[in-house]
Write a structure and sequence with these properties.
Elements (H helix, E strand, L loop, with lengths): L3 E5 L8 E7 L6 H9 L3 H7 L10 E7 L4 E10 L6 H13 L7 E5 L10 H15 L20 E5 L3 H26 L7 H9 L7 E5 L1 H6 L3 H7 L7 E8 L10 E11 L19 H15 L5 E11 L10 E4 L5 E4 L6 H16 L4 E5 L4 H6 L4 E5 L2 H14 L3 E3 L17 E2 L8 H10 L7 E5 L5 E2 L9 E2 L4 H12 L1
Parallel strand pairs: 1-6, 2-4, 2-5, 5-6, 9-10, 9-13, 12-16, 13-17, 14-15
Antiparallel strand pairs: 3-4, 7-8, 8-10, 11-12, 14-17, 18-19
Helix pairs in contact: 3-4, 4-5, 5-9, 8-10, 9-14, 10-13, 12-14
Bound molecules: ligand BES, magnesium ion and zinc ion.
């Protein structure tokens, strides 16, 4: 279900719920003043009588008569907006969506912030809509008999702004971003019997219609490229692996090197393999393809808004299953880079997949820098919880830029170490390296150190998104479930650094 949005200078329909956003000043300016006047001062009376709770996010429902109809007006209080940045603006929309009742199908938004607001008012309007769209996502495709008990009915939003044409200019790239976010959330929500390496590669192939070049490697091609690390993981599964590459060049220079190549872990289900996981909570491992989901959604967003940048991407898609054909702890595999790897624990499979995906990304695209995303370790959840993703990098400039984009979008990261003091951790007695650390601690760093071996000294950053990919509860900008963490972060990173 998609919500129709229009930016208008005057409400045409005045259907459904009228929503009046009030900030700290409690002043009724412009379109808010007209609304108040039309409904015989009901909003100003409510302010005067102090019936409005001035706690950020509180609302007050009023029923008013303009001589023609009785209309519900919901006054929504946002508090101080003086220091508003784009993230806080998005959150106004997310917050107000939650306060709208399920039965509302048409919504008209009135807002006239004071001149003191730093962010452009038309951008603010676009951002409010964006926040509503992010928060209103649902995944009810399998609620076959009971869908209507769950969905909100919101179908149309009208927002009043001085310059609707300019607001639309601000909104158009955000709409493309929403579509990328929705795709990522759909992919991580999809169960593993439906989303296999093959069907996930087919979803990526659909991006061709946006002008993205997509190539899918099948099992035979992966074997020919000698991706022994990725193949070792795939061995136990009846679902064959895939490796997908994508490239988007929105610049005029067709010979330029990609500014960045994004690489994603796409384990469509992670049982742990022979080092099998406990059954409690194992269903969560359907979203162990989260890194690849973010990469695919991000490419969709960038192409959707015709980003003036050259970027590329690779995702390694496998299923990690135990079976008579599965790899064993102690096996030695040889990655496409030529490194030998002793597989101590078959549950540390993401880094094995990334080893070959990273090598392929560098050989195919010779990008200027590399950013990988993976739901790689439980250890990063212990360190940072669901609030921040782990950031590991061999390059300060790259790390600082990603960090800054995180603060700006609210998809926050925290830098963790990958120095040579951790080199010993992944040394093997019989091979070039092993896939888990020797020590008891620093599990997220061991994972990053392992991936680093394949980066050929390129500027590289690794985002361990195990703690942020799936939300247990609702929050301001997303409902419980897939968050698509990383799409908004890296969209901003690309925009701020390369466009
Ligand atoms: N997919 C898991 C990591 C994970 C855990 C993601 C919880 C999301 C939520 C990964 O493949 C894994 O199993 N990692 C092991 C590594 C260990 C064997 C070195 C882990 O973290 O326990
Ligand atoms: Mg695992
Ligand atoms: Zn995994």
């Amino acid at each position: 279900m998609s919500i129709k949005v229009s930016f208008v200078s005057k409400s045409k329909s005045k259907k459904g719920l009228l929503l009046a956003i009030l900030d700290e000043s409690l002043e009724l300016r412009g379109n808010l003043a007209s609304l108040d006047k039309e409904f015989k001062g009901i909003i100003s009376s409510a302010i005067k009588s102090k019936s409005l709770n001035t706690k950020k996010g509180s609302s007050l429902s009023l029923f008013a008569n303009n001589g023609k109809v009785i209309q519900e007006i919901l006054v929504y209080y946002v508090g101080s907006i003086k220091n508003y940045d784009i993230d806080k603006a998005d959150r106004i929309g997310g917050g107000l969506f939650s306060s709208i009742s399920k039965s509302v199908s048409n919504l008209t938004i009135y807002f006239e912030p004071s001149k003191k607001v730093k962010i452009n008012k038309e951008e603010l309007a676009a951002r409010i809509i964006h926040g509503i769209k992010l928060r209103s996502y649902t995944f009810y495709k399998y609620k076959l008999k009971s869908k209507n008990n769950f969905n909100k009915s919101l179908k149309e939003i009208e927002i009043i702004t001085k310059d609707p044409a300019l607001a639309k200019v601000y909104y158009s790239p955000l709409k493309a971003l929403e579509e990328g976010v929705y795709l990522t959330r759909n992919l991580v929500s999809e169960p593993a019997n439906i989303l296999t390496p093959k069907t996930l590669s087919e979803e990526a192939s659909k991006l061709k219609t946006l002008g993205i070049k997509v190539e899918v490697l099948n099992l035979a091609q992966i074997k020919r490229l000698k991706m022994g690390a990725l193949l070792g993981v795939a061995m136990g599964s009846a679902n064959e692996p895939r490796v997908v590459s994508m490239s988007w060049n929105g610049t005029k220079n067709s010979k330029s090197k990609p500014e960045v190549c994004f690489v994603g872990k796409g384990v469509t289900f992670d049982t742990g393999g022979i080092s099998i996981k406990p059954s409690g909570g194992m269903e969560d491992m359907k979203w162990d393809m989260g890194g690849s989901g973010v990469v695919i959604g991000l490419m969709k967003a960038l192409a959707g808004r015709k980003a003036k940048v050259h970027v590329s991407a690779v995702v390694g898609l496998v299923e990690n299953m135990p079976s008579g054909k599965a790899q064993r702890p102690g096996d030695v595999v040889i990655a496409s880079s030529g490194h030998s790897i002793e597989v101590i624990n078959t549950d540390a499979e993401g880094r094995l997949v990334l080893a070959d995906a990273v090598t392929y990304a560098i050989n195919k695209f010779t990008p200027k820098r590399l950013i990988d995303l993976a739901t790689l370790t439980g250890a990063v959840i212990v360190s940072l919880g669901p609030q921040r993703a782990g950031l590991f990098s061999n390059n300060d400039e790259l790390a600082n830029n990603i960090f800054a984009s995180g603060e700006k979008t609210g998809e926050k990261v925290w830098r963790m170490p990958v120095g040579e003091e951790y080199d010993e951790d992944i040394k093997s007695d019989i091979a070039d390296m092993k896939n888990v650390g020797s020590g008891r601690g620093a599990g997220a760093t061991s994972g990053a150190k392992f991936i680093e071996q394949f980066t050929q000294s390129l500027p590289w950053a690794h985002l361990d998104i195990a703690g942020v990919t799936w939300a247990k509860g609702n929050s301001e900008l997303y409902p419980a479930g897939g968050t698509a963490f990383g799409v908004r972060l890296l969209n901003t990173y690309v925009k701020d650094c390369f466009e």
